[in-house]
Predict the structure of ATP-binding protein.
Amino acid sequence: MNMKIAFVGKGGSGKTTLSSLFVRHLAATGAPVVAIDADINQHLGAALGLDEAEAAALPALGDHLPLIKEYLRGTNPRIASAETMIKTTPPGEGSRLLRVREDNPVYDACAREVELDGGAVRLMVTGPFTDADLGVACYHSKTGAVELFLNHLVDGPEEYVVVDMTAGSDSFASGLFTRFDMTFLVAEPTRKGVSVHRQYREYARDFGVVLRVVGNKVQGRDDVDFLRAETGDDLLVTVGHSDWVRAMEKGRPPRFEFLEDANRRALRTLQVAADATYELRDWHRYTRQMAHFHLKNATAWGNERTGADLAAQIDPGFVLGEDVTATA
Ligand SMILES: Nc1ncnc2c1ncn2[C@@H]1O[C@H](COP(=O)(O)OP(=O)(O)OP(=O)(O)O)[C@@H](O)[C@H]1O
Ligand SMILES: [Mg+2]
């Protein structure tokens, strides 16, 4: 199955840890994976085993927005220039689309191969967030590159895009949170841990976002009961403390096959749940939602910012999809 999967949750809940474990799990199955670090604290590279120098040398998506926009715009006549392309500008006839497996200038500039047990994955990072990035919708938003990437991606069978992401107002305003087949909300068994779930659930419901809770740092029956009481049927699985993770954090990663059995089973559960959403996929709805959020952002700030009527960028006859030739 091809899947776009987000890990969200409050700071420190374990988004990065679980994203990285899931990426390692997928890589071990031999599946092609693009891993994207869009978290405030950029730690996914380290969690995938890069040392400090390697992680620091990763190119930042945020630094390559002009290149990304220029490439994706292609010959789309509705997008006059890269300057008028905002993070929600949808693809249309003439746009260049992206695939998980191909080589393209976006990967050349922004992705790096990371060797894991079982296979290599592509890693892309937004780059560190500044205070300005955390505000409201913003032309230079770091996650804008991720949104453009996802909105132009036609993922084929047996491919995965895994995004380590902050559950912030930015992703709600831009529509980024609707770009996933599955959203895993990582929650510790604490009041703060589950509070993000309540907010996220409201947004998710309105947009048909599939949301499941992954309990983390769960120590016993009482923790599970608490998460069940607070998050109900959304609770998918729980993960306990992992000595494997601790060893990895000490810079001594054991081989992935030595991950604790219970945690390995949890990762399989995540994959099964993610794969099962494939049937719910609806490219028409996916494309409609792009237009919805694009219009919202155009009126809120984009038109003024670019001096153009961004509504005209929407190609009414275009539907993104695996068989994109059917959209002509
Ligand atoms: N299941 C686990 N077993 C052992 N350690 C864990 C586990 N989950 C998380 N941790 C540890 O907890 C800390 C926070 O986890 P992590 O960095 O993954 O959270 P995060 O949600 O990405 O945080 P941030 O908001 O800072 O990006 C890390 O030191 C991580 O190693
Ligand atoms: Mg993190």
About this structure: Strands lie at 3-9, 33-38, 112-116, 119-125, 160-165, 182-187, 211-215, 235-238. The first strand starts at residue 3 and ends at 9. Residues 237 and 265 are 10 Å apart (CA to CA). Residues 15-16, 39, 41, 43 surround magnesium ion (ligand 2) (CB under 6 Å).
